Write the structure tokens for this entry.
Amino acid sequence: MKTPLFKLLLAASLAVLASLFLPTASAQTAAKDKIAVVVSTLNNPWFVVLGETAKARAVELGYDATIFDSQNDTAKEAANFENIIAGGYKAILFNPTDANGSIASVLKAKAAGIPVFCIDREINATNAATSQMLSDSYSGCVKLGQYFVKTVGKEGEYAELLGIVGDNNTWNRSKGFHSVVDRYPGLKMVAQQSGEFDRAKGLEVMESILQAHPNIKAVFCGNDAMAMGAYQALVTANKADVVKVFGFDGADDVVKLIAEGKIAATGMQFPKLMARQAAEYADSYVKGKRDFAQKIPVPVELVTQQNVSKYGDYGKK
Amino acid sequence: MRALRWISFMVVLAGLAWRFPLFHVVPLQQAVAEKKAATFDPTQFAGTFWTNRLLASLDKAVSATVLLPAIQSDPAAAKKQFARSVGMGESYFYFVAGIGRVVSVSDDEILLAVTATGTNADISLPAGPVFGNALRDSTSLLNVSDYPNSQDFNDISAALNHLVETTVLPTLRVQAKVGAQLSFAGCAEVADESSDLKPLHVVPVMTRLLPNL
């Protein structure tokens, strides 16, 4: 009698222990789904905000999220995609390095059954990514161009710092700006060079432009990192008061300088809005949604001294 | 025997080369023509779009006598009922048509009063350069998702604006005398619901001088 009773008690104890520990064990074995955030570069605060926001939103939605830095290099980006495909990720939130050069990586992910949601920058394909949330750079720079003419005037020399030559945003911004400014023959662009969307490069290029063209009245920069570099070069050359700087992005340091009257204007993109939306789309995809618009433009708003109080923290207050 | 193996190998190799050629020889003229055909021509596209689709859809434009009172009474409700939005932003577009009387002409704009006895400007038509995407985005005729490279889509805007400047505005500047009656149809872009829409800035697709009553 004693032995069966002991066995019964032992079995009951084990059952209680199992009921206590099994949920934890199953939770440990059922690991969270993973989402990859691939960012063109983390060497620019704007993209850090984009990547961190996408990651944070994915984590809020219950995923393990990891950021991959492509270092503005399509080869590095392709290697990141290989690792992501091999790593069993459920979705990729992707800020591409090159509109054409990044297509192959997206197609590989698609072939592996992993949806890709492009953020901010596009790829030149409509059959690869699941959806693309794109800053409407062209329209934003049309507004900047109109403000440029209003504040600089219809005559004078100016310079332009382009972004990365292979990136569509570089040309969408430049074309939007020139679609306005080129209508005024008195405004003469005396220098147009790439600062590669980089602050240090922007500073270096601006220094050489100032030496060759000391009479410029303004500089239009394809992003705020280059605008900060250009502004720094102007301060060093004691020309910050006479040369107007126009940026694009809506980076916090530039917005602060606009409020102080040191930079003329920027185009506010909404990196947090785009990043969060991309994470939410990825979550919807994982849960079964399939009908996504291929391209979703996100308007850019003009930030000047007149309305700067409405903006900050990479968006509208 | 060895020669037979060699011949068989060469035959197989020749067959593979025929089936899967390592390169194709294309006549230079054909290559140039193919490249040209593959390049998007925004000017040509905009011209065809303007004639065949935009002008053909003017009957879809909302009447100014309906839209303008609706905007004055409740901008949010007017937006919901008559506007088109694109993407995730706050801006939206109206495709509008009507008849107005010219109340003012300047180098920058031509102002119209839409009500019969009104003297206030309800509609502003540009007299100078046209910028923005109102013409491209006010109707549902063009969709960015159809364009792999958004530069092409943006070039359409520039080409459409150029068409307005070269085909509509020269005639409008001649027609626009204070007191003249004009029939018009066009597209308006609104930044957000807090925008001042008195007057509503419309990029004209068509204007026609009407006999004064």
User: Anything to note?
Assistant: The first helix of chain B runs from residue 2 to 19. The interface with chain A takes residues 86-91, 129, 131-133, 144-151, 154-155, 157-158, 161 of chain B (CB under 8 Å). The CA atoms of residues 45 and 156 of chain B lie 7 Å apart. The beta strands of chain B are 62-63, 84-85, 92-105, 109-113, 123-126, 181-190, 200-201, 203-210.
